[in-house]
Specification:
This protein is mainly beta and 118 residues long. The protein has strands at 3-7, 10-13, 18-25, 33-39, 46-51, 57-59, 67-72, 77-82, 91-98, 107-108, 112-117. Strands 2, 4, 5, 6, 9, 10 and 11 form a 7-stranded mixed sheet that branches. Strands 1-3-8-7 form a 4-stranded antiparallel sheet, with no helix packed on it.
């Protein structure tokens, strides 16, 4: 059974930083692309960042230069370092995984709340 468990969310002031972690189990982590999505109240879930199994990265334009995604295959964990946070970054952040570098995301975590105050 695949499980993705996010941690590290919380409340931070605008301009601050947070680091989210996602611990994966039940899959061969090194073979999976990993990603982060977010969903703000009354909005659709949106892509934030992804990292392929060979650590190629991709970012939404709204977070480029502020967020950094990384992975540690020895720990089965993916991270996103979020700097220069803005109130519009407030959302529930979800970790996700897929077997290929393209197409549907197969597995999702339960999410962790990030709130950025102005």
């Amino acid at each position: 059974q695949v499980q993705l468990v996010e941690s590290g969310g919380g409340l931070v002031q605008a301009g601050g930083s947070l680091s989210l972690s996602c611990a994966a189990s039940g899959l061969t982590f090194r073979n999976y692309a990993m990603g982060w999505f977010r969903q703000a109240p009354w909005k659709a879930r949106e892509f934030v960042a992804s990292i392929s199994w060979i650590s190629n990265t991709d970012y939404a334009d709204s977070v480029k230069g502020r967020f950094t995604i990384s992975r540690d295959n020895a720990k089965n964990t993916v991270y996103v370092q979020m700097n220069s946070l803005k109130p519009e970054d407030t959302a529930v952040y979800y970790c996700t995984a897929r077997r290929s570098d393209y197409g549907m995301w197969n597995y999702w975590g339960q999410g962790t709340q990030v709130t950025v105050s102005s």
